[in-house]
Amino acid sequence: MRNTQPSIDLPQMARAVSIRRLFRHGDRREKLSITALWLASLAASIGLGLASVIYKWSGLPVQLGGAELYITVYPPLVICLLWTLTCGWWWGAIPAYLATLTLSLYGGMPLPWALMFSAANPLGFAVMGLGYRAIAISRNLTSIGAMLFYVQLSFVAAIFSSSGALVWCYTNRIDSTALLPIWQGWWLGAFLQSVFLSAPVMAVLWPRLERWQHARPQLLVDAGADPRGSVLRLLGCVAIGVLVYGFVTLKLADNLLQVQAAGIPAALARSLDVARDTTWAFYWVFALIIVFIAFFGYHMFIHWQTLTNKLLSDLRHANQRLYLLAGTDSLTGLHNRRVADERIASEWQRAQRLGLQAALVMIDIDHFKQINDRHGHPTGDEAIRILASEIRALSREIDSACRYGGEEFLIILPQADAEGAYTFAERLRTSVAAIPVPSEHGPFHFTVSVGIALFDAEESSHDAWIERSDSALYQAKREGRNRVVSPAAVAV
Ligand SMILES: Nc1nc2c(ncn2[C@@H]2O[C@H](COP(=O)(O)OP(=O)(O)OP(=O)(O)O)[C@@H](O)[C@H]2O)c(=O)[nH]1
């Protein structure tokens, strides 16, 4: 019979909508609406990407707390990031790649550079996806924890997305002193758009989409089932992201400083050199600390994961044992009444659904009270054990043998007809009668009465099935005991 033991719910790792599964298992409405929406997003990304070049939305100066910052507005990022977060990397990476490719070719970038340049946003999305694969955190941004994680991940992803700025400046022969505002504009722009545009939309959209995905598991695939590898890669990305951010910012600022410092008095230039050297020394110490943190973080994660896995596996085993114990009769080792009731109900449903035959066999030891009274309770127990082991020996792998009451047993025979059930019951009755039970007064024999009821598809519940087997047993007792009452008794 089916094992219905309880399972332990683990947090869901990130899952993605599979295009292949959508077209194989999705309904017409789903296929149409998702395809139409995706194509519209692709068109919008390409159009808005071109607009960002034509109307020069790159490196726009903004005053923040007295400091001048540069921000690039790039709407395709918002659209494509939403696809990545909700449906998976490919869904956002393809339109993002094509949008950037179009605008870079439009801007006159040579094709090989354009092909490389266009990978910047998909790279940032890959970091986002990696984060959600590595840490089983909800994408429901209405919770503070989920939002904080999203913001941190967005920062690292934005650094990776902004790698394109270097290609852009190189191919457009932009002076290295002008690279800082452009690069800053790209990462800051990507970060702010992720946090202030994509995140609120995600907070509204995701709970609904999550419900839809929950109801349609056949459309989803695991986005990656290797948490160890994902964590290692995520820590690597975070460390590289932070270090690259620090290095590029310092280097570009340094270049700028050197250009602007030309011709200043020698004493001031020396102070400037000290300040620059100190900053770089700080950067390298900081880089070392980041590498240590990533290294220890990874080892702590592995340690924690090993411990958790062991705990979970112990818990699973303990649960399995408990479940078995809770359903086992201690005297005979057969299933107890609770399991019997569950299994009868499920066999009844299976027979109904599949139009199968099945039989219930109810067995009771004859004059058991006398056995107890004459030979003592322990000998009565021994008789029960003998009957149980005979039931076990004669029943098939697919049968379910249960101790239903004191000296009453019930056996479910799936796919058994009247004749098969009767043959089984008769064999059991005769073999039990032949087994001697040892006692203080010498060995003695006992008999059993058996009632059989076949599955009836016309009946409205499994209770009626049990009642019929009980009535057949009662009839066997009434007719003199040590016999089988079955619908097939006459035929055989
Ligand atoms: N030794 C032992 N006796 C039990 C156990 N559970 C129930 N009994 C006894 O089983 C006896 C059942 O007796 P009855 O229900 O009167 O039936 P019977 O004497 O078998 O008579 P018929 O069923 O009519 O043949 C009672 O005396 C119970 O105390 C058990 O686990 N071990």
UniProtKB/TrEMBL annotation:
GO biological process terms, semicolon-separated: cell adhesion involved in single-species biofilm formation; negative regulation of bacterial-type flagellum-dependent cell motility
Keyword hit for Transmembrane helix: yes
GO molecular function terms attached to this record: diguanylate cyclase activity
Top enzyme class: transferase
Keywords on record: Membrane, Transmembrane, Transmembrane helix
Reaction catalysed by this enzyme: 2 GTP = 3',3'-c-di-GMP + 2 diphosphate
Entry-linked PROSITE patterns: GGDEF
Limits of the GGDEF domain: 356-489
Coiled coil: none
Enzyme Commission number, as recorded: 2.7.7.65
Superkingdom of this protein's organism: Bacteria
Keyword Transport in annotation: no
GO CC terms in record: plasma membrane
Positions of transmembrane segments: 36-57, 69-91, 111-132, 144-166, 186-209, 230-248, 281-301
Any Pfam family the entry gives: GGDEF
Protein name per its UniProtKB record: diguanylate cyclase
